[in-house]
Amino acid sequence: MKNFKFYLSIFILSFILINCKKETKPSENKSEITQKTEKYVVAQGKHCFLSTIESPLIKEKDTIYETNRLLLNCIVKGNKVTGNYDYIPYKQNAIKGTFEGVLENNTVTSICNSTDNERKKEEFIFKIEKEKVSIFGGEKIKKEGTWYFVDKNKGFYMNELPRINCN
């Protein structure tokens, strides 16, 4: 029995040592890794994004689709960004906004002036990516006539608008 325990111990120790010495080979396909870590660089010039949201509305056994649109167009010059952000609902008045801001690491931080039933000024943040733009959302508080995010660490990106060709 002592010999069995001795040989079992040697076998287990050998197994551990052999497995610890296994080398991991680096990936042969470096372009695959590079593609995953490549960062999109926002080009200078005009960028356009549009999201179309269809909402079903049932009237007298018929389904009618109301189309609401979110549109964001911007022009990048250096690190300065200007543009418009519009919400165009099917039946109600459109909410149109213009913004001016600064681009840093693909994120635009701006102040947007919009018209609803009244003029509104608010902090407007969005992230430009290769195929889309994502709008930042979260709780806001009014300070000196402008609505600012309460805590940007608690906010989140929402409303992804696909990129479209600018006319």
What does this structure look like?
The chain has 167 residues and is α+β, with helices and mostly antiparallel strands. It has one domain. It is 16% helix and 55% strand.
Give the class from helix and strand content and strand pairing. alpha+beta
User: What count of domains describes the coordinates?
Assistant: 1
**Shape, please?**
globular
Order of secondary-structure elements: HHEEEEEEEEEE
Give a quick account of the main beta sheet: strands, pairing sense, barrel closure: 8 strands, antiparallel, barrel
Sequence stretches where pLDDT stays below 50 over 5 or more residues: 1-37
Mean pLDDT: 78
Beta strand %: over 45%
Determine the oligomeric state from the structure. Answer: single chain
